[in-house]
């Protein structure tokens, strides 16, 4: 069966962060182009790899990977709330197969997801319910983080299951690229912030408002450069995209996550989701990966990229 990959960056600053009208228009056009690619592919099932930002997953129990048997959007950063259209039977079968193949995944019958999962779909289609879905969380924010090799092996196992499913499966990822939002570290945070990182579900309106204001202020400072936030690095992003397009995904195995955080920022490890998605596609042989859009948007603290890929045999 045919597989394809759709990847796009997300950012909490997409709505209210600083960007000129031309940039906003080009981002909108990029999402429209990506949506057309998805519609033309006409998937029976969407499998999405994405991170969380201490909204649904916390240090009280922090898995490296988790398959959602059911999932609900929390509605942060102007995204909508409500249940995702999860195909629970398929999600359970996939999780069992992953464990059988030696990929340790948790499962959740009440997964809560944030803008990392749903924002790109709302930008493409106005809602996150366009396709039946299996969500897979990858820990990208709470060290210790999984390695690129583990993300690659997860993706390859997902790709084998998808290819054997008898369905047209769109594999998706969202995150990064170079991306340094002001995420606190549990090692240095004050006690009240540590508690939020450990068990911070359902924060008060006051806490939510303070968090939003802090991120918006950081984005405003990032436009002109600020020492506490790494600038978006288009060279790092280009090198990452070129590695994906090359098909040599094992080359990522040697990259240490501490180096990613040092060069691409605290949100840089979200690219684990992209590697997992392309690894799933790689199980079908060589692929063609198109860069649909890229812009280093400093006011959004994000290297905004969009890609779509299919097996080369399908392009013949």
Automatic annotation (TrEMBL):
Residues 6-304 form the Extradiol ring-cleavage dioxygenase class III enzyme subunit B domain. One of its GO terms (molecular function) is 3-carboxyethylcatechol 2,3-dioxygenase activity. It is an enzyme of class 1 (oxidoreductase). Keywords: Oxidoreductase. Its EC number is 1.13.11.16. This is 3-carboxyethylcatechol 2,3-dioxygenase.
